[in-house]
Amino acid sequence: MSRSTDIFLTALAPAVWGSTYLVTTEALPEGYPITLAALRALPAGLLLLAVTRCLPPRVWLGRTFLLGSFNFALFWVLLFVAAYRLPGGVAATLGSLQAMIVIFMARGWLGTPIRAGAVIAAATGVLGVALLLISPEAQLDPVGIAAGVGGAASMAAGTVLSRKWQPPVSALSFTAWQLTAGGLILLPLALIVEPALPPLTTTNLAGLAWLGLVGAAATYALWFRGVARIEPGAVAMLGMMSPVTAVTLGWFWLDQSLSLVQFLGAVIVLGSVWAGQRANRPQAHQMIRSTRKHAKVIA
């Protein structure tokens, strides 16, 4: 497939993740973030394991649990802490720092060059998200800020390491391994920290099914497929599609207002995502080297 097709398919993942806020607030019981995160990850991971029939070999168990922690367990827990202690706009803006963090992590772990255009695009995207979501009366909480930045760093580390560690299996199997590992980490934490869930309604079950089957199993398979094919900085920029989708759904589904500043922020975010794809495009000599490496692997 062409790079444009890979970018489009990968962008579908964060676009769908933008529905998480709507589904969580409208369809799930309040006050059980870790339990709901475990129910989102573990059943989806086990289902994918049953479909792919591919278990991680022993030598991959350590990496799988580390990636499952970065991409799911640690990331989702910190995300919920930030969401509880900060206004949603501030939490989302801190989360958008992921693109900037990925650029520097990829330099250290993958040797990817730091391009000025990529840094400018990432910084511009953060500004766009801030305009899109932050209100003037937003309150700042040190613990919430630390959780927001930590969550962005966790997802960034998971993205870069998922590119660095590529097992000889399909993206669907790789997703199954990580979702299951993340769910297994979250489950005992939920049992220790949170009370038992109340009886779930049909709406609750539908919300969990959406977040698990679509918002986790299907979309993360697309995400990890993109991580394997697209430059880490370019992939991370696509994550900024999530707040744009969230605001659009709030406007369309919940009749929330959309100000001129928010509209400008959305335009800036979309422009920065486009610029980030161009800035992170590999040079011709890097593409030739990658092609030769791929050919050797196949041979």
TrEMBL record:
* A GO term from the CC aspect: membrane
Concerning SUPFAM superfamilies, the annotation shows: Multidrug resistance efflux transporter EmrE
Residue ranges of the EamA domain? 7-133, 144-274
- Pfam families the record matches: EamA
Sorted alphabetically, the keyword list is: Membrane, Transmembrane, Transmembrane helix
Subcellular location as annotated: Membrane
Residue ranges of the TM segments: 32-52, 64-84, 90-110, 117-136, 142-162, 174-193, 205-223, 235-254, 260-277
Broad class of where this protein is predominantly found: membrane
**Membrane-topology annotation of the record:** Multi-pass membrane protein
The entry assigns this protein to a family as follows: Belongs to the EamA transporter family.
Identification of the protein by name:
ABC transporter permease
